[in-house]
Every structure is written in structure tokens, then in C-alpha cells.
Design brief:
It is a single chain. This protein has 20 helices and 15 strands. The protein is an alpha/beta fold. The protein has four domains: 70 residues, no CATH class; 167 residues, MetI-like (MetI-like fold), CATH 1.10.3720.10; 64 residues, no CATH class; 176 residues, Ribosomal Protein S5, domain 2. A seven-stranded mixed beta sheet has the order 9-10-8-7-11-14-15. The chain has a four-stranded antiparallel beta sheet with strand order 3-4-5-6, with no helix packed on it. Strand 5 and strand 6 form a beta hairpin. The protein starts with a helix and ends with a helix.
Length: 563
């Protein structure tokens, strides 16, 4: 019986050790795999590094990344600054935390309870609440724009002091008492007994501090101004934006934290910049008025004064304004009446592409559109914006139709997608994203009356790919053909582009700048165009078959023949 219990106990212990080993090995792998992945990616090509996969070995080993890094001389000074700040700050932090923790373990230390309470209280206060006092302290000590500010900012930590205190309290007090009896001093006991026995705590603090200081970003943003004192994190961001490249004009950029109009005016007149950005006009106020910033009077007066300065000095002034939830400029339109140009910065929050649209322009055409991509180096212009608004299908799919729309003077190819499904409620849903919802109901009535295609018992959903908003009526024909394709569950012909306005009588009306639309479609490789008869080109376009129609039912018949 006794041997049986021993055997059972030994088996249970073995199973526990195996399970414990598996769990610890799994945890170790979760920490090791990211490190190996980063190391493997550093030896890959640019194209392979953009792949969203975990790599343990590079598929095509390359040292081009390291070559580019070592060729950039501007990185070496920030790397040295980061090393100095990290090593010096970590050593000071560990030393002071160990000394403070050792003192707090002394039972005869006068005021020990009060000191422990004072050390513990800052641990409960988040850094965001003390950022202003810390900034004022660093400024008054004269440490601004020096590496000393980055070293002393976190040189003492409540967490580290309490951690070392707990480690020291685990050391038998008899060791210290024996050393005192042998004539050892407190420093001797601290350095030769306590520190060697508290190596695990020291290593823990050192790792936390080293990693945190090496990757810290906010303190350098707050306290460092000159490029020669940049740390590595700041320098890498500056390099990403090409601010450290030879010939960069980053040094010519001036920042002014001011909302008083008179001081802004004086700065513009003294600096004479080429471009001045006011962010934002609703926060600027003039001492000549008693109303609050953002009021109609303040916005009108400040905008008028800044416009006058721009006319007199030749400085281009960009005034950033707040917008409402509907996307309109906040407040009355006094600001739009004063300025020369009104630009709206649009874009889907889930997309990296941004649109700059002109609604007022005294120096050119309105409704012009600029397409930009938010890259790691900032906003960059898109050479072929039509490619953004076209889905990349391996095969043609039902409910998809390519429209050639016009944004200002720029023709854009946009994919219109439709989904028609049986309605399970008495009132079918009509939803349009990027297109006019009211116009959708009208087009469905035209489709029923003149083409005999009823959707009264179907849910209809429309979407313009890429987050673009289409307001022109030239999208009517593309919308109806996409709906017809989805209802039949049959794709439209490959390489087809469509544009044209559909009237209530079923006629297809011409769209402006039809030749430019056709040329843009031909340039992008489309082979068939279904357009209004009035937009038919007088001369054939190479590689593009043009089908001109003047009625909706005729357009649907021609599509069926092409299938």
C-alpha cells in the first residue's frame, strides 16, 4: 500500500513537471518568435519585408537594409545620444533605487513609515497629470535641449524602490548584524552583502529601465529641440519624413504656440515666411474684441486681418477650420466669404488615401480633386488615382460596373457595386454609400417603368469603391446596369465602362467632357464603352469599342447581346 502511494506520488510529480515544462516552453516561444521575426525581416528585401507574415528565415537573404542604415551618417549621432542616455540613466536609476530600498529596510530609521508613504503616493499618479510640473522643473533647472533632461526625467521610480526594498527584506538581518559586529560599515554591508544577494531584483530593474529608456519617445519630444541632441527614436521619425536628408528644409520650419492675433501678425511681418499655417482659425482671438474665440465676430475679424497681411506681404496663409459632423465648415460662412480658396480634406478613416477637394477657388476651377496617399513619409500624390477606386477581381463578378466620373477637370474610373437580395420585411431597404440615396429610389422607378425590371420586393444596396463620393448624374446608367447585373446574378462584359444620365422618360442624356472620359478609359486598358449617343466620338479611339445608346431599354438589350 505504501509503495503504491509512493508510485502514485512520483507519477503525479512527473506529470506536473511535464505540464509545467510545456507551459514555460510555450511562453518562451511567444517571447522568442517576435525577436526572431524582426531579425529575419532585417535580412530580407524591401518587397518581402512588406509581406504580412511571420518569418523565421528570410526567403531571399539581403543586407540592403543594413547597408542603407550604415550609409546614413545622420543616424550615428542620435544612436550615440541614445546609448549615453540609456546606459547612464539605467545605472543611476538602479543605484538610487537600491540605495533607497536599502535605507527603507532599516528598522531603526527615523521617519521610515512617513517616507514609505511619500514614496508610494507618486505611484498612484499617472504621468499625464505631472507632465506640466515636470516640464516647468526641467525648464527652470536650465536642462532644456540637453541630454541631462532625458537622464534625470525617470532617474527615481517608486516601483523600483519598492521592488528592491522587498528583495532586501528577504535577506536575513543576522548577516548585517554579524558584519556590524566584525566592524563593517554600512556601505561595506550594502555593496558586499546586500547587492550580491539582490542580483535578481537588480537584473529585473535593469531590463525594464534599459528597454524603456531605449525606446522612449515623449521626453525627447518635450525637452529636445536641436537636431544634434536627437535620440534614436526622434531621428528615425525625422529620417522617415526625410527631414535629416541633405538639402532638407526642415531647419526653415518655425513653430509658434500662440493664439493672439496681434502677436501672430507681428511674427509674420518679422519672419516674412513663404507659407504660414494657422491651426486653427476658431482658436485665434483679437484683443480688439471682447467676444470669446470661435465666435462669429472673432472669426470674421481674425480672418480679415490675416487675409490683409497675406495680400500685403505676399505670404500664402492657410487657415485650418473646424468642421461639423456633417463635414461642413463650422459656424456661419463668413470665413468662406473672406478667403480666396476653400479646400476640404476628405477621406475614409479606414483607408490610407485622402482627397483634397476645392469648393471655392478665385484662381482656378472649382470641384478640382487632389488624390493623396498617406505613406510612412507623409502625404504623397497619387499618379493614377483611378486605380484606387477599382476593385482587383480575379474574375468578373455580378453587380459590378465601372463608371467614368468627372471630378473637376480630372476623369476618374470608379467601380460601382450593387447587391440585390430578396426582402424579408414589408418595406425593402434602399441603401447607398458614396451615391445619392434619393436618386436611387427615382432610378429604381425608371428601371421598372421603362425596362420592365421590378425591385419592389428586393433590398437594394449600392457602394462606390474606395470611399469616393459621387454626386454627378452621369452615374445613373452605371448604377442601373450594376443593379440589373446583380438581379440576374450575371456579370457584365469584361473591360466595360459606362457613363450617362438617365431621365424620368427613360432617355439617356449626355455627360460633360465625354471625350476626356473615353480617353482615360482607353488609357487604362478598357475595351468597351456604353455611352449616350450625344457623347459618341467623331473619330474612333484606338482599342476602344464605343456603343452609343439613347434609351435605357436599348442599353440593357445591348448589354445582353454582349454577354
Amino acid at each position: 500500500m505504501k509503495s503504491n502511494q509512493i508510485s502514485t506520488s512520483g507519477t503525479g510529480r512527473t506529470l506536473f513537471v511535464i505540464a509545467n515544462t510545456i507551459v514555460l516552453a510555450g511562453l518562451a516561444l511567444t517571447m522568442l518568435v517576435p525577436l526572431v521575426n524582426v531579425f529575419a525581416v532585417s535580412f530580407t528585401t524591401d518587397l518581402e519585408s512588406y509581406e504580412n507574415t511571420i518569418k523565421l528565415f528570410p526567403r531571399e537573404p539581403s543586407i540592403v537594409g543594413y547597408r542603407v542604415l550604415f550609409e546614413r551618417v545622420a543616424i550615428w549621432r542620435p544612436f550615440l545620444n541614445n546609448t549615453v542616455v540609456t546606459v547612464t540613466g539605467t545605472l543611476l536609476h538602479v543605484f538610487l533605487a537600491s540605495m533607497a530600498g536599502y535605507v527603507l529596510t532599516k528598522p531603526r530609521f527615523v521617519g521610515k513609515a512617513l517616507l514609505v508613504m511619500l514614496v508610494t503616493i507618486p505611484m498612484m499618479i499617472p504621468f499625464q497629470m505631472i507632465i506640466i510640473p515636470v516640464y516647468v522643473m526641467v525648464r527652470r533647472l536650465g536642462l532644456m535641449d540637453t541630454l541631462y533632461a532625458l537622464i534625470v526625467i525617470d532617474v527615481v521610480s517608486t516601483f523600483s524602490i519598492l521592488l528592491m526594498k522587498n528583495y532586501f527584506e528577504g535577506i536575513p538581518i543576522s548577516l548585517a548584524e554579524s558584519a556590524l559586529m566584525d566592524g563593517a560599515k554600512e556601505f561595506t554591508i550594502f555593496f558586499r552583502i546586500y547587492l550580491p544577494l539582490a542580483v535578481p531584483g537588480i537584473v529585473t530593474i535593469t531590463i525594464f529601465q534599459f528597454v524603456g529608456r531605449w525606446n522612449q519617445f515623449l521626453p525627447a519630444v518635450l525637452f529636445i529641440n536641436s537636431a544634434e541632441n536627437y535620440t534614436l527614436q526622434i531621428a528615425l521619425r525625422a529620417q522617415r519624413l526625410s527631414l535629416l536628408d541633405p538639402g532638407s528644409k526642415a531647419s526653415e520650419l518655425r513653430l509658434l504656440a500662440e493664439i493672439q492675433l496681434e502677436k501672430i501678425q507681428a511674427t509674420i511681418e518679422s519672419e516674412r515666411p513663404d507659407v504660414a499655417v494657422i491651426d486653427s482659425i476658431q482658436t485665434v482671438y483679437s484683443e480688439a474684441l471682447t467676444s470669446a474665440p470661435g465666435s462669429v465676430a472673432q472669426v470674421r475679424e481674425c480672418a480679415a486681418q490675416l487675409t490683409r497681411i497675406a495680400k500685403q506681404s505676399g505670404t500664402a496663409i492657410i487657415m485650418v477650420g473646424h468642421v461639423t459632423k456633417e463635414g461642413n465648415l463650422a459656424g456661419p460662412r463668413v470665413l468662406e466669404h473672406i478667403v480666396d480658396t476653400v479646400l476640404y480634406f476628405e477621406g475614409d478613416t479606414h483607408s490610407s488615401f485622402r482627397l483634397v477637394r476645392a469648393f471655392k477657388n478665385r484662381f482656378g476651377a472649382v470641384n478640382e480633386l487632389g488624390v493623396f496617399a498617406m505613406t510612412e513619409r507623409g502625404l504623397r500624390g497619387v499618379a493614377n488615382p483611378s486605380a484606387l477606386f477599382l476593385s482587383q477581381h480575379e474574375q468578373i463578378v455580378p453587380g459590378s460596373c465601372v463608371l467614368v466620373t468627372q471630378e473637376g477637370s480630372r476623369p476618374l474610373l470608379v467601380e460601382v457595386q450593387a447587391l440585390v437580395d430578396a426582402a424579408n420585411v414589408p418595406n425593402p431597404r434602399r441603401l447607398a454609400v458614396g451615391l445619392e440615396q434619393n436618386r436611387l429610389a427615382m432610378l429604381l422607378a425608371v428601371l421598372h417603368r421603362h425596362a420592365g425590371i421590378a425591385c419592389f420586393d428586393q433590398d437594394v444596396f449600392l457602394n462606390a469603391v474606395g470611399g469616393v463620393k459621387i454626386t454627378e448624374p452621369a452615374a445613373d446608367l452605371a448604377v442601373l446596369l450594376a443593379i440589373h447585373s446583380s438581379m440576374r446574378n450575371k456579370a457584365l462584359p469584361k473591360g466595360l465602362i459606362v457613363f450617362g444620365e438617365v431621365g424620368l422618360a427613360g432617355e439617356i442624356r449626355p455627360s460633360p467632357r465625354g471625350q476626356d472620359r473615353l480617353k482615360e478609359a482607353a488609357k487604362l486598358g478598357f475595351s468597351v464603352a456604353l455611352i449616350p449617343k450625344a457623347n459618341a466620338p467623331k473619330q474612333p479611339i484606338d482599342g476602344l469599342q464605343v456603343i452609343a445608346v439613347d434609351r435605357l431599354e436599348q442599353a440593357i438589350d445591348r448589354i445582353r447581346t454582349l454577354e
